[in-house]
Write a structure and sequence with these properties.
By secondary structure, the chain is mainly α. The chain is built from four helices and two strands, in the order H-H-H-H-E-E. A hairpin with a 5-residue loop joins strand 1 and strand 2.
Length: about 100
């Protein structure tokens, strides 16, 4: 499934179910809670870790839709930018960005 399709389907579900479609700060708070649930599922090796990651994704695409962002396009641009970036290492071996791409 393409990101744009998931974004539209997630939005349609929110509208049909009467979920939040206007309060951006609330949506960020709910996203944060979902990230916490995904972390807990990973940390405890729970079988619903994938489902929790899917919840995180759905909140992210809903935030994009709520703000008129074509996340499919933005992700493509960001991946291209990341590929062009060059990293070196500092004296501790930590990756340091050398060029922005």
């Amino acid at each position: 499934m393409e990101i744009s399709s998931a974004q539209k389907l997630a939005w349609e579900n929110k509208v049909q179910k009467g979920f939040n479609i206007t309060d951006v700060p609330l949506e960020f708070g709910l996203l944060n809670a979902e990230v916490g649930e995904a972390f807990t599922a990973w940390r405890k090796d729970l079988p619903d870790f994938g489902e929790e990651l899917a919840d995180v994704f759905l909140y992210v695409v809903a935030l994009a839709e709520m703000n008129g962002i074509d996340l499919d396009h933005e992700v493509s641009l960001k991946i291209e930018k990341n590929v062009r970036r060059v990293y070196g290492r500092d004296h501790n071996g930590v990756p340091i960005r050398v060029t922005d791409g």
